[in-house]
Amino acid sequence: MATTSVAADSAEVGGRFHELQQELAPRKRAPYRLTEDITIAPVTRGQILALRRTQNDDEQMAIVLGDRYEAVEALFADRPLDEWYAFQKDLYAHLFGQGSTELPGGSQGS
Length: 110
What we know:
Layout: H1 4-9, H2 16-24, E1 32-33, E2 39-40, H3 45-52, H4 57-65, H5 69-76, H6 81-96
Antiparallel strand pairs: 1-2
């Protein structure tokens, strides 16, 4: 049985899936570069589904940050809380669009 990414990679090149990828390519979200060593990838549908299953802010941030979670936590551990909130707001605006924290159903992380 093929995994999701393998199935997507083997999708018909001439199909609508491929066309959608091509249409979105020019405006595709770039990774969020926090530091020289910490880059956070755009969220996937799988991450969004995981976010829906939890109301815990820490779990949500771990889902969004993925394998960069520990590095980001270490970076902010001894920093003022206002810097953490500013980072969250900026990250969510980048990943989900401006105003995502103010929209009904938007992120409540900060």
